[in-house]
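User: two proteins, same treatment. go.

Assistant:
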Amino acid sequence: MKIKAVLISAMVAGAAFLGVSGTAVAAPTTAGTSVTTASTDGFGPSCTKGKNLTNGWGQCTTKGSYKWRVRVWCTLGGSGESSVVQGATRTNAYCSWGNVEQVELVFL
């Protein structure tokens, strides 16, 4: 228990050093999970993103004429992008080198 308390104390001190206080930080996305994203003004599209081993995906459910794509960052330094899609749909991006580390939805 004492070790756990010391680790938590060190994490809090590190967060304070970095200027983080009272801010929620999302955990990294792991394989097979999804994250809901939306614009900060509440009027943007409602979208989710996720990944498996070599693919990242995005899905938007809000109707409209907005354009977007999925970008993936891969473990061996590569990246990939989907084609540009419009409106409510789902699309994938592929890592040809390594596995997907991060998925990003890019609105154009």
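Protein 2:
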Amino acid sequence: MMAKPEHPPSNGWDRHSILAEIRRQKMPISFLAQQADMSPNAFSHVWTRVTRAAEEVISDFLETPAKELWPDRYPIQSSYFGSSKSAGLSASQKQHKPTDNAVAA
């Protein structure tokens, strides 16, 4: 009983519009979780943090790509906070620089 929303929000999806559309189609979140063999808690966390499995279940139900529902979470970026890989080679602390022998003497 999945159905693509007839009138997607003109200003983009947010938590309230996603929930409203799911409710409009008379589908409890707990039933979506049960069908996907997931904990209902996973669905409660989807609004505040990345939960890819729950995002996929909801996007499949609404027949809307997850990147449209949560545009700030896509594309998936695998960056590590403080990683020198994202800052470039000059940020590496292991990079060898010529010593200033004049100051050292």
